[in-house]
């Protein structure tokens, strides 16, 4: 999921199913993110990590 690159192509978080991913998380769970070490990958990871943190889940990269 490259959110920044996808945004330039007219694809947003809804089309990438990020909302479904976040909905599956709950407190005590861990989400491990492995994205490219590019600006786009880091932007996507930060975006997802912020959303996941609000659920109480732990986020690792």
Task: Report a brief summary of the structure.
The chain has about 60 residues and is mainly alpha-helical. It has helices at about 5-10, 20-25, 40-55; strands at about 30, 60. It has one domain (about 5-60).
Provide key terms for this protein.
flat; mainly alpha; 46% helix; two-stranded parallel sheet; 3 helices; 61 residues; 10% strand
Outline the fold blueprint:
Layout: H1 3-8, H2 18-24, E1 30-32, H3 39-53, E2 58-60
Parallel strand pairs: 1-2
Could you explain the architecture of this structure?
There is one protein chain. The protein is mainly alpha-helical and 61 residues long. The protein has one domain (3-60). The protein contains 3 helices and 2 strands, in the order ααβαβ. It has helices at 3-8, 18-24, 39-53, and strands spanning 30-32, 58-60. It has a two-stranded parallel sheet. The radius of gyration is 11 Å and the shape is flat.
Q: What's the helix-strand series?
A: HHEHE
Please state roughly what percent of the residues sit in beta strands, choosing from under 5%, 5-15%, 15-25%, 25-35%, 35-45% or over 45%: 5-15%
Spatial order of the strands forming the largest sheet: 1-2
Radius of gyration, CA atoms, in whole angstroms: 11 Å
Question: What is the total domain count?
Answer: 1
Q: Write down how many β-strands occur, each being a DSSP E stretch of 2 or more residues.
A: 2
Distance between the termini: 14 Å
* SS content category: mainly alpha
User: What's the helix count?
Assistant: 3
Report low-confidence residues grouped into runs of 5 or more.
Answer: none
Query: What is the multimeric organization of the chains shown?
Result: single chain
Q: Describe the largest sheet.
A: 2 strands, parallel
Question: Can you give the helix content as a percent range?
Answer: 40-55%
Shape: flat
The average pLDDT value, as a whole number, equals 83
